[in-house]
Design brief:
Blueprint lengths: L3 E5 L4 H12 L3 E8 L4 H6 L6 H14 L3 E5 L1 H17 L6 H20 L4 E3 L4 E5 L5 E5 L16 H5 L1 E2 L7 H10 L21 H8 L8 E4 L5 E5 L22 E6 L4 E5 L5 E12 L9 E6 L7 E7 L5 E10 L6 E6 L2 E8 L1
Length: about 350
């Protein structure tokens, strides 16, 4: 009897080829697109992995592959776990990563639960990552074969139960190979470009989105200040800024300056020089371990502090309060509170946490 896998189909080339590869491997494949948009008009206009164009493209691929296809409504989960979280973090002066929250709570927790109810053995996605079972019996995310498209950073918080029911066939291929497979099979999405922006903010204007979505008062304009408290100018509101930012500050300082800190309690945005954005010690909370059950002694790892960070050597150490301190060999630029620090042991994700 064939094992059944539900493939999360975003309408893009990666998840479409994932469905094809699993079908070729002998699985009974079911295609599902997760409907997450809150507004039908916005959904109709949106591209990326969430709009109606995604549904249309995924359905066409499913018809070509002759597999069952469904659209599942996850609007409530997406609103609570991703959009509300995103807004709340910016209001606190932090820089969230909505893709990590979406992966953990929507693409895995909600989709997996519903898929298991349908009698599925696995769920699968088009992520450029791999899932392995280690000698210690634990499951861990492993780097994809192509560093250029590797998406392991955004998957560090998946649980052992979720990983045990996950397949990621695309992680064994380079992007060019995936497009070639799509072309050879005549899939209608073979030339579809990758989505770049956050799916629920297609115009990339985070501040305007937060102004619309925030419940209650949005932080008003306030002061740009130097580290010593000297007032340098006026900002538009703390939700428009992130640590490390230099563009859009509209400060006539005569040279490039950068956001070094956001102080929601005083509604101030601290401005400094580029060297002021670097830190050697980074503290994390809400830590999840994957390749190991827990961190029992200090360990040398490669840590990434944002999605497109190449990673840097550091020593991680778990404190008595459960937080993890990362001591980098060389200072890293702009570790932003709210972003994730993800720890790698060789090719495997050891774990990660949220930067404080």
């Amino acid at each position: 009897m064939k094992q059944r896998v539900v493939v999360g189909m975003s309408g893009g080339v990666d998840s479409s080829v994932a469905a094809y590869l699993l079908q070729q491997q002998g699985y009974e494949v079911i295609g599902v697109t997760m409907q997450v948009w809150q507004d039908e008009d916005a959904e109709r206009q949106a591209g990326g992995c969430c709009g109606l164009s995604a549904v249309e493209d995924a359905r066409r691929v499913a018809e070509m592959l002759d597999i069952p296809y469904y659209v599942m409504n996850f609007k409530r989960e997406f609103r609570e776990k991703v959009m509300d979280y995103f807004v709340a973090e910016y209001l606190r002066g932090r820089t969230p990563n909505p893709c990590i929250a979406c992966n953990r709570y929507v693409k895995w927790e909600s989709l997996l639960r519903r898929s298991l109810e349908l009698g599925a053995d696995y769920i699968a996605t088009g992520h450029y990552a791999r899932v392995d079972r280690l000698e210690n019996g634990r499951y861990a995310i492993r780097n994809s074969v192509t560093a250029k498209k590797d998406q392991t950073y955004a998957l560090y918080s998946l649980t052992q139960e979720q990983l045990a029911h996950t397949l990621m066939p695309v992680g064994e291929y380079a992007k060019e190979e995936i497009r070639q497979i799509a072309l050879e099979q005549g899939l209608p999405v073979a030339h579809k470009p990758d989505s770049q922006e956050i799916c629920f903010i297609p115009d990339d204007d985070y501040g305007a989105f937060i102004d619309r979505e925030a419940v209650g008062e949005v932080p008003p304009p306030g002061n740009f200040v130097a580290q010593d408290g000297q007032v340098l100018g006026r900002h538009r509101g703390i939700t428009h800024y992130t640590v490390g930012q230099r563009r859009g500050l509209e400060l006539a300082m005569g040279h490039r300056v950068f956001v070094t800190q956001i102080r929601p309690e005083t509604n101030e945005v601290v401005i400094g020089e580029n060297e002021d954005t670097f830190a050697r010690r980074v503290l994390c909370d809400r830590v999840c371990f994957m390749a190991v059950e827990d961190l029992t002694e200090p360990k040398r790892v490669i840590a990434k502090i944002r999605y497109n960070h190449v990673g840097a050597p550091c020593l991680i150490e778990k404190r008595q309060d459960g937080k993890v301190l990362c001591n980098f060999e060389q200072p890293v630029r702009a570790p932003a509170p709210g972003q994730a620090a993800v720890f790698y042991d060789g090719e495997y994700v050891l774990g990660g946490g949220t930067i404080l």
